[in-house]
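Shift notes (night). Ran Pyruvate kinase while the centrifuge was going.
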Amino acid sequence: MHSNHLLLEEPIRMASILEPSKANFFPAMTKIVGTLGPKSRSVEAISACLKAGMSVARFDFSWGDSEYHQETLENLKASIKATKKLCAVMLDTVGAELQVVNKRETPISLKEDAIVTLTPHQGQEASNEVLPINFGGLAKAVKKGDTIFVGQYLFTGSETTSVWLEVDQVNGDDVICVVKNSATLAGSLFTLHASQVHIDMPTLTDKDKEVISTWGVQNKIDFISLSYTRHAEDVREAREFLSKLGDLSQTQIFAKIENVEGLTHFDEILKEADGIILSRGNLGIDLPPEKVFLFQKAAVHKCNMAGKPAVVTRVVDSMTDNLRPTRAEATDVANAVLDGTDAILLGAETLRGLYPVETISTVGKICAEAGKVFNQDLYFKKTVKFVGEPMTHLEAIASSAVRAAIKVKASVIICFTSSGRAARLIAKYRPTMPVLSVVIPRLKTNQLKWSFSGAFEARQSLIVRGLFPMLADPRHPAESNNATNESVLKVALDHGKASGVIKSHDRVVVCQKVGDASVVKIIELED
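Came back to this:
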């Protein structure tokens, strides 16, 4: 991976761009989150998605009930077993999402300059004159001239499947709007987004709490994507709720930034959350188009410096119906990687798109190519400067391990960790080679039974750029004498060799704890 590392700032021989890329065991350092749904929920489809490079499966509870998602999850478990590829589970909450209710699912054609009424009376049938919505306070929140966007759930922003409305007047609980473009809304569920308007709904709704405390607890979910996070308090409340649900106290919370309110409180949200999802679909409506790139670059940079995963959404919308992305989309994916994004989240493209596997494969290839020209040297210097001195003990070890690996052209960094923190810190410095995170299980008890920790920690690194986890044998304690660690190291090296990442005479950097000391060592492999 390191050997063909180019820099865009250096002159590139143009013909070299056309040379085919070498196949890698790890499709790309940047991870891919796939949303599972009608087009991607069979064992065959999920297995193909895992082989193509998906490492986190997202379950979106804005539609579908717990039984439906449970069936999909059982298929995911079968696929993981069949493909021997680890995959984490992300539960996406509904949150303060406004929805148009179309019970009969008949297509609704809206014509430019026509009048349409948004009403909270959900008993009414949806038509081209009336759209019933799931929120009674819209009339109090909007005023004449405000913009409202309505689209098919996971809308693509295409002007034929989504519609812009302008508020003309408020009549009691009803909001009367002028249609700004002709469009046909199809399906049972459309999301509704009022641009730069505060919606007085809880971030974690009663329905979300019910789903998390039943489906979430039953399946020990790894991540929660907290939709419509607007304040740090939203994350604190969610964390407090999870802390009372047994195993879910370990579940990581990814704050989904979807509107100007979340953007305004970004810094305080980042301090509380375990990671950030930049929901560019909704943000693209709240922000002027010329400001979207600026928010993305600033937000990703802040996440990078905090050592927390940044996930970008809505990258290849056109692949929902097409086999190839547009030129702009392909460039957009690459730019997200060059910005420092940890993972790309695919929504409609895998949920109801015609080509879920091809989409994951295409995005993975673009990420891999972009990763080759990522300016690691500049990034490393910026990160070290940002962290400042004196560094914490762990931060110093992590940055030294990455620097050593680059200087000796190591093929991989192996990190022994029990909490996953050390491995995440190494990944924060964006080494050009994969980081093999060997999670050493710890024995714990709740006074009734013994159990091993480690599975959560391993799966949660599946969303971090460049981090590839493996679970060590529980018979080997986390901190022990040298001999035991050596045997775990042998297992890790064998895994690396089997994966094709490590070859004879390669150098490997190992980061481990021996007693109270943290050690970084360089080993050279023999035949």
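The first strand starts at residue 31 and ends at 35. Residues 66-83 form the longest helix (18 residues).
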